[in-house]
Design a protein that fits this description.
Blueprint lengths: L18 H13 L8 H9 L4 E4 L6 H11 L3 E5 L3 H13 L4 E4 L5 H12 L5 E4 L1 H4 L2 H13 L3 E6 L14 H4 L2 H6 L5 E5 L4 H10 L6 E4 L7 E7 L4 H10 L3 E5 L3 H13 L4 E4 L5 H12 L5 E4 L12 E6 L6 H8 L9 E7 L1 H12 L10 H19 L4 H8 L12 H4 L3 E4 L1 H16 L6 H8 L5 H5 L16 H13 L3 E3 L7 E3 L3 H5 L6 E4 L48 H18 L3 H4 L2 H10 L4 H5 L6 H19 L3
Parallel strand pairs: 1-6, 1-7, 2-4, 2-5, 3-4, 5-6, 8-13, 9-11, 9-12, 10-11, 12-13
Antiparallel strand pairs: 14-17, 15-16
Helix pairs in contact: 2-3, 15-16, 19-20, 20-22, 24-26, 24-28
Bound molecules: adenosine-5'-triphosphate, magnesium ion and zinc ion.
């Protein structure tokens, strides 16, 4: 059996001793990539050996390639189940642009078009077909098309992409995914390949069971995203100005907010300040959302301000920064949302702004989890609090941000990573046990008098302030009055905030932010538990984010261009080590050409070439097709399609044209 649609020879993995060489050559020819990323080659081999596979890799890890490359190297067709039309379209667009025969069948097509594509499919016209599960499982489609395919050109594999949709424990459960096990009983000889970026053990077990995977080869890649720089910043009056500066520095960005109202406000403000930004949330109609997403993907919009409704289906690989303007709800959510940055493997930034008011908002939202009668949903509230606690611990931690996140996924990572604020600009840990006890005993004294106050008032007592309110309350008679004079008000505020974050005191939720003791306060009061808080060195050390160019430990990905500035420069193009000095004007010129070509062909610019390819181009300035073919990201099809245009641009630039 051989397919007319493929210009790649089939390989026979068991007979071919030089498979590794062949695979790398095929990878370059078809996709233009120089090498496999961590984990990819082993998966490709298992797929070629026709085993069932469960592969877990982080967002942007390169899962698609693991089934796309084998699809090209085998006779027959590979059927890919995907949950969203946008995802199918994006993948098919990228494949087609690489000269690979791929298509999708879904509800966006009319009956005649579906008929046409089905007929071509049966004749072997496609190497890959993308479908929604409900389409694939239509009785008629199963009985006619799928059966004929197996009997005819052959089915290499059923690929279940975003396989976590099968699990109720995942975040995107889809009932239709549950039915997919029917494929196994109807076509027992066809391997099933499941891919997901959701790492939890529970979801993993669920996928294997629900899809009836048969002795699957399980591949779990590291969830470390070495090219992302993580940073947590205090939320204060400078926050908006910082965001604006970040946006003005360039690069596509996503800003996440908790509520629709804030999304609208912030998007409006950014636009008023000259940023091409749009809002995205579930309150907008479908067309508006679609337009915003489309404009973002085509680089007509630079920034999307969104609620978490903006998520799956956003496979734009060159998002350079993700900002959480409000506290994320869960640490897993934070990992997924921030992970939309830098899917192309180039340096990108993730910034989380964190302020005390956010904690109150989050707790308020948790309290809204009630049944129709208004009674608290105890379990959900408990889980919500636990999740909030994890987020707070992450935000407040002085430990490597990567280490905290990866531990959440059960992965051990010992910092320093060289690409997070805590590793690059460590804060000092100070012992504030004495002051913490003074603070707590002040709350305790007040409690004895059945009184409760907020942090500012407690600090006044400790510092011996002579305010009218304090004196008229008679609080100058408390034994704790004035015992904390030696510390500044700001220092006390830092301590109060840290104790709140560490859960050592409680803040009331009834509109007054009064403080009270909880069970964790007592060991501190009794002197059994020390209190340590992290403090920023003042004098602008934290803003001069120019730590050295160390690489995150154990964070290299084979096949990546070896470069990662500890702090990605967003104002200009970072210079890759391997590239001779990049000519910025030429790079901008090539970007402009890419945008023109993209608009001509109705494609997103990244589908033509990634930024990293353009950067290499601007560095090496290839003047003929042979030199051009050697660039990473240039495969056969793209060479033929775009090589001449880009070479002409480079020549014109050289001649000062
Ligand atoms: N070996 C490689 N070398 C260079 N780039 C690669 C390689 N493999 C994949 N990529 C690129 O990595 C990016 C992400 O790949 P892909 O879309 O397959 O990620 P994914 O693992 O499916 O992520 P998600 O979970 O978000 O769907 C793509 O832009 C792709 O072109
Ligand atoms: Mg994917
Ligand atoms: Zn770190």
């Amino acid at each position: 059996m051989s397919s007319s649609a493929s210009h790649f020879a089939a390989v026979h993995p068991n007979q071919d001793g030089d498979l590794a060489l062949d695979l790398t050559a095929a990878l370059k020819r078809a996709f233009g990539f120089e090498g496999f990323r961590a984990g990819q080659e082993a998966i490709v081999r298992d797929v070629l050996a026709r085993r069932d596979v469960l592969a877990l890799m982080p967002t942007g890890g390169g899962k698609s390639l693991c089934f796309q490359l084998p699809a090209l190297l085998q006779a027959g067709v590979t059927l890919v189940v995907s949950p969203l039309i946008a995802l199918m379209q994006d993948q098919v667009r990228q494949l087609t642009n690489n000269g690979i025969a791929a298509t999708f069948i879904n509800s966006s097509l009319d009956a005649a078009e579906i008929h046409r594509r089905t007929a071509s499919l049966l004749r072997g016209g496609y190497k890959l077909l993308y479908l929604a599960p409900e389409r694939l499982l239509l009785q008629e489609f199963l009985d006619n098309t799928v059966r004929s395919l197996e009997a005819g050109i052959g089915i290499n594999a059923f690929v279940i992409d975003e396989a976590h949709c099968v699990s109720e424990w995942g975040h995107d459960f889809r009932t239709e995914y549950r039915q997919l096990a029917r494929l196994r009983s109807r076509h027992p000889r066809v391997p099933m390949l499941a891919f997901t970026a959701t790492a939890t053990a529970r979801v993993r077990a669920d996928i294997i069971a629900q899809l009836s995977l048969r002795d699957p080869a399980v591949h779990v890649a590291s969830f470390n995203r070495p090219n992302l720089f993580y940073r947590v910043k205090p939320k204060d009056k400078n926050t908006y100005r910082e965001l604006l500066a970040l946006a003005k520095g360039g690069g596509s960005g996503i800003v996440y907010c908790l509520s629709r109202k804030r999304v609208d406000e912030l998007a409006g403000k950014l636009r008023a300040n000259g940023v091409r930004a749009a809002a995205y949330h579930a309150g907008l109609d479908g067309a508006t959302r679609h337009d915003a997403q489309d404009a973002f993907i085509r680089d007509d919009l630079q920034v999307i301000v969104a609620t978490i409704a903006f998520g799956m289906g956003i496979d734009k690989p060159d998002v350079r920064w993700v900002v959480h303007y409000d506290l994320p709800r869960t640490l897993e959510g934070y990992y997924q949302e921030s992970g939309r940055a830098g899917r192309d493997g180039d340096a990108a930034q993730c910034i989380l702004y964190f302020g005390g008011a956010d904690i109150r908002t989050a707790e308020f939202l948790i309290q809204q989890k009630v049944d129709p009668n208004g009674a608290a949903l105890q379990d959900e509230q408990r889980i919500g609090r636990q999740q909030l606690r994890q987020v707070l611990q992450f935000a407040d931690s002085t430990e490597c941000r990567r280490a905290v996140q990866l531990r959440y996924f059960g992965e051990m990572f010992s910092g320093p990573c060289g690409a997070c604020d805590n590793c690059c600009e460590p804060r000092t840990i100070e012992d504030w046990t004495v002051e913490a006890r003074q603070f707590l005993s002040c709350i305790a004294r007040l409690a004895q008098r059945r009184e409760r106050f907020g942090a500012a008032y407690i600090i006044d007592i400790l510092r011996g302030a002579r305010t009218e309110r304090l004196l008229s309350n008679g609080h100058d008679e408390l034994s704790v009055y004035g015992i904390g004079k030696q510390r500044r008000t700001e220092d006390w505020r830092d301590l109060a905030r840290a104790m709140l974050h560490q859960g050592l005191i409680e803040e009331a939720q009834d509109g007054y932010s009064v403080l009270s003791l909880n069970s964790r306060s007592w060991p501190v009061l009794r002197g059994e538990e020390p209190v340590r808080i992290a403090r920023n060195a003042k004098s602008g050390r934290r803003s001069s984010a120019t730590a050295g160019t160390s690489r995150p430990a154990g964070a290299s990905r084979p096949g990546d261009t070896p470069r990662l500035d500890a702090t990605p420069r967003l104002d200009a193009t970072p210079t890759p080590d391997a590239t001779p000095s990049v000519d910025d004007t030429l790079f901008e010129r090539l970007r402009a050409l890419r945008k023109r070509l993209a608009d001509e062909h109705g494609l997103p610019p990244y589908v033509i070439f990634h930024d990293s390819t353009l950067r290499q181009m601007a560095g090496h300035r290839p003047l003929d097709l042979e030199q051009f073919a050697a660039l990473p990201g240039v495969g056969q099809a793209k060479l033929a399609r775009y090589g001449a245009r880009f070479i002409a641009e480079i020549r014109a630039h050289g001649e000062g044209g």
